[in-house]
Amino acid sequence: MLTFETSVFEREYITLADGREAIVRGGRHLFDRLPSAFEGVNQIAVIGWGPQGSAQAQNLRDSLAGKLKVVVGLRAGSGSREAARAAGFTEENGTLGEMFEVIAASDLVLLLISDAAQVELHEQIFAALRPGATLGLSHGFLLGFLDQQGARFPENIDVIAVCPKGMGASVRALYLQGAQTNGAGINASFAIEQDVSGRATERALGWSIGLGAPYTFQTTLRSEYLSDLTGERAILLGGVHGIVESLYRRFREQGLDETEAYRHSVDCVTGPISRTVSKEGLLGLYRRFDGEERTAFRRAYAAAYPVGLELVHEIYDEVASGNEIRSVILAGERLKRFGMGTIDGSPMWKAGEVARGTRDDEKLVLDPGTAGIFCGVMMAQIDTFFEKGHPYSEIANESVIEATDSLNPYMHARGVAFMVDNCSTTARLGSRKWAPRFDYLLTQVAYPALEDPRADLDLGLLTAFEEHPVHEVLRVCAQMRPSVDIFVE
Fold this sequence. Notes:
Elements: E1 12-16, E2 19-25, H1 34-37, E3 43-47, H2 51-64, E4 69-74, H3 81-86, E5 96-98, H4 99-104, E6 108-111, H5 115-128, E7 134-137, H6 141-149, E8 158-164, H7 168-177, E9 188-194, H8 200-211, E10 215-218, H9 221-233, H10 238-253, H11 258-286, H12 291-320, H13 323-338, H14 347-357, H15 368-387, H16 392-414, H17 416-420, H18 425-451, H19 461-466, H20 470-479
Parallel strand pairs: 3-4, 3-6, 4-5, 6-7, 7-8, 9-10
Antiparallel strand pairs: 1-2, 2-10, 8-9
InterPro entries: 6-PGluconate_DH-like_C_sf, 6PGD_dom2, KARI, KARI_C, KARI_N, NAD(P)-bd_dom_sf
Pathway: Amino-acid biosynthesis; L-valine biosynthesis; L-valine from pyruvate: step 2/4; Amino-acid biosynthesis; L-isoleucine biosynthesis; L-isoleucine from 2-oxobutanoate: step 2/4
Domain KARI C-terminal knotted: 220-362
């Protein structure tokens, strides 16, 4: 069991299924403790102004309220400079500067540029860090790359991670909502890779609480990147995209018009399914159905789960082997020539523009077959992570909470591109690469099995589902859920 010590915040233990985990609950009442958590830090650098960089810089600045300087560092000629200035970070007030100059002048450096840029510039970044500084990451991608190269972080620095379980837009949006509802925010994991100063844990917890995390749980940097890279390629982004694309076509083939097919696929997943799972868990969703609807859920689940399990295992293997990290780096080079393609040009997303214009959220259909397919793939990811030994909090957040509370609301509001393309470049690439695989296998394997009365669907999978320990994990996590839902403009 992972555990940690803190003298600044209150550590508590929660029981998740058959295990105990140490966590720290957040809240604005703790902001006054942040200077103590950051003892020995005179300046915090936020390097980059992407989805996470912009959100984290603003949240930390607002939480610290002038008690500690937060400075944004950007590469010379960065196109993000004007956006940072518009948010109040300027050269005139000393809160905006050139990337390497800011790194050299800071005690805590939060490296939030793209993963590909981290790989390209890591040697220069390491050279610019002052001895005894703390390097902060929000993703373990760089560790995965260093492992491949047989390289290490500099030995004279702390290396910590705070990884919000949601896109940057959610990190900022829920933080702002927290001004009215204390505790509203995005959960985060933290990891300590190197602790030279003896202050690494306090700084990581202070960083997480300063971002507005309702609760912070512990993991390792390696476990984080394995689960995060896999999750965003599976149920969080790529998987859900492939699911709804395949379902939409299936409903059209069954005779539904464009709007109704969208209602039964996308709107169903991002609306009533996500809302129910967020507050009542997967078992709560299952219990919404009885009679023929329960049978439809069970058959759909039994058809989708094996497909999802095989594919999530493949993704995990690609991440663990380093293949997916290499793929992202190679794609980063291709992007310089080809750019990022669109993902919302299919007929479904055109139909969605019309459907969203006439949508009544209170009357959206809860389709049992759609629910079974979605839950089957989600549980396949959960079981993959259980098998690989990830901690319960990480499994619940990377497989369920992030999907329902942070990501799916964006697809509900404006479609898949609004969800995926508010995420990191690594996530965007992974979603584009793997969504077609989910679409293909569901269409080629799961749906034919559903339609074939002679198909031997393993309904015994539902017994394992009903008895699964993740339901108790989600029940405990739901008790720490903020009382507000994210508001997406």
